[in-house]
Amino acid sequence: MSGGCDPTDGSSEEDQLKLLLAIDNSEYSVEAIKEVAKRPWPPKAIVRVISVVEPVTPPATELWYDAGGSLERVQQEMTKRATELTQKTSESLKRKGLKIESAVREGDARSVIVDEARKWSADLIVLGSHGYTGIKRLLLGSVASSVVSHAPCSVEIVRRKQTKKSRRRIE
After folding, report:
1. What is the second-level CATH architecture of the domain 14-170?
2. pLDDT digit string, tens, across residues 85-136
3. I need a labelling partner for 158 at 20 to 30 A (CA). Which of 70, 79, 132, 149 fits?
4. Judging by DSSP bridges, how do beta strands 46-53 and 154-158 pair with one another?
């Protein structure tokens, strides 16, 4: 962490703990949000909640075209949903007494999260993981794995606790 987070040391803004919480609309992000909410963070900690809107590609929008949509409208709707998600999450974390900022960015989540951490000088990135392995991970990619490999700071990956039932489904 940059500098000390002891509130008695006359710390400056540079000494704040800066936590970047990367979320999407998945159950895995819900677990990451819960993890951040339940922790005892230093008094001057600041959490930036970020959601990344991936660029829309034509195969993903075929259903929208059928409904008379356009690529631009699809992108606008995705941005609107991401904004609502970050606002809702921010309000929830504020109720826990945390200082919060929120941001919605566009691009490839793997690079946008790392870039945001670098530009903001984050001390810690927290994000959820789907926990894919093998061929699924190869085909779908792993935002968490890429962030861990390229982040300029520490990264915490939050996983959902697996029940016996969910383990059987994966196997």
Report:
1. 3-Layer(aba) Sandwich (3.40)
2. 999 999 999 999 899 999 999 999 999 999 999 999 999 999 998 765 555 5
3. 79
4. unpaired
